[in-house]
Design a protein that fits this description.
By secondary structure, this protein is an alpha+beta fold. The chain has eight helices and twelve strands. The protein has two domains: 207 residues, Glutamine Phosphoribosylpyrophosphate, subunit 1, domain 1, CATH 3.60.20.10; 57 residues, no CATH class.
Length: 278
């Protein structure tokens, strides 16, 4: 068997059925954990594969979920045909919000998982089971908030409860929604990774903040009407930057998703334009 390193990790698979979102959040003392652990598809489910991870659990598990199998059935089916299952760890949430988790007896202590409505939380080589308890408790107590924010809070709570006994190195956040991503042409609502950092959760928060600025949506009622005075200001500032139109400048700085016509302006766009043209 090929030599592998354990993906010493804690993770949570979860969904918001009302929003039509499924996702995975994870942190580990492992390089680029986001390249191995998280898998998700909208209205299908979410999967985390870790410990001596079997990356095929991701695509194969999503295929089984698409066939209509429940989360526990997917776990049973994947592990039954895997000779290395004793060292695997797996979490699954299906399209109905049912959660299932598996920890093989060969996983390094502390290792285990918890499930509940719309989530499966698990971890291995942890300081203690309090890390997984914190994932579960945080998810259960934040049901009134968006899924992305809940998952970030889960990671922070798990780290505060002890986290990975070997330390920390990388983190990832994946949330999918049908046509919820870039330009309405992608299902990846949020897909962010911190591959190697001394404080990966803080860095993940920072990168997520940039994501919100570039791709978030300000309610249209909060947009600002462009009257004559504001139009003159925009023209002057854009002129200093060498641009004839707001859309042209926004495309250069990746704010094009926040521009829609010339009669109103997203306050995030206006703030950024003013910041770069003091």
């Amino acid at each position: 068997m090929a030599r592998t390193r354990p993906v010493a990790t804690y993770s949570i698979c979860a969904c918001d059925l009302d929003a039509g979102q499924w996702g995975v959040a994870t942190q580990s003392k492992f390089l680029a954990v986001g390249s191995v652990v998280p898998w998700a598809a909208p209205r299908v489910g979410a999967i985390a594969t870790q410990s001596y991870a079997n990356p095929r659990y991701g695509p194969d598990g999503l295929a089984l979920l698409r066939e209509g199998l429940a989360a526990q059935e997917v776990v049973d089916r994947l592990t039954a045909v895997d000779d290395g299952r004793d060292r695997r760890q797996l979490g699954v949430v299906d399209s109905a919000g049912r959660g299932a988790t598996f920890t093989g007896p060969g996983c390094h202590d502390w290792a285990g998982g918890r499930t509940g409505r719309c989530y499966a939380a698990q971890g291995n080589i942890l300081v203690s089971g309090e890390t997984v308890d914190a994932l579960a408790a945080t998810f259960e107590s934040t049901g009134d908030r968006p899924l992305v924010e809940r998952l970030l809070d889960c990671l922070d709570a798990a780290e505060a409860a002890g986290g990975d006994s070997r330390g920390r190195q990388s983190a990832a956040l994946l949330v999918v929604e049908q046509d919820g991503g870039y330009a309405g042409l992608s299902d990846s609502l949020v897909d962010l990774r911190v591959d190697d950092h001394t404080d990966p959760l803080a860095e993940l928060r920072r990168v997520y903040g940039i994501h919100v600025q570039l791709f978030g949506a300000t309610p249209r009622r909060d947009w600002i009407e462009v009257d004559g005075e504001l139009r003159a200001e925009l023209d002057e500032r854009l002129g200093r930057l060498g641009h004839a139109t707001l859309a042209g400048w926004a495309g250069v700085v990746n704010l094009e998703e926040r521009v829609d016509g010339d009669d109103e302006i997203d306050p995030v766009v206006l703030e950024e334009l003013r910041k770069v043209t003091p």
